Amino acid sequence: PGDQEAGELGLAAVPGRQAAFRQGLEAAVNYARAVGCPRIHVMAGRVPLGTDRAAVAGEMETTFIENLKYTADLLSQEDMIGLLEPINSRITDPCYYLNTPHQAAAILEKVGRPNLKLQLDLFHCQIMDGNLSRNLETYFPLIGHIQIAQVPGRHEPDSPGELNFPYIFELLESLGYTGYVGCEYAPKGDTLEGLGWLRSYWESRGLQHGGTSKAAK
Description:
alpha/beta, 42% helix, TIM Barrel, 217 residues, 5 strands
């Protein structure tokens, strides 16, 4: 994440911070290796304060691509995946450089490395672009991780909001998604109580707690 006290939120696309980015990446790899985690979120970072986004877009993209190539080479030695997550600039962070799946897909295409993927947070995607079904279908080949939260409150999937998560989960299954779905939300209360939505979802699918089939028992 860089120097968060100084207002940084990632370094991969920030010009002049390449050395610090590489140090941070190496530390992240060490942590990931220690806990057996094969995926690392490579945070793009914010447009520097006092600069116009359009004016620095080209330089930031060049820096991002350069750092991502370095990242892909390093992670390939560890059999790890680097993930790019667009973060919405309408609510969460107006200064974040990478803010739409389309932008992330274009960057991934220019870098052209198979061990770099899209981390698609449906909360951010809905706020910036909507059209979730088509976006999931379009970008599915690039997706390395999915995260969820209800919109606009960023709470549990069954809290009041815009997204129909039972439909979305079935769509992910139909597309053949076999990865994890990260609960990137702020619980409205107690964490375990907040996971009631998952128990209800399992029961609606004829599954027991833990996702096992009742028929198999």
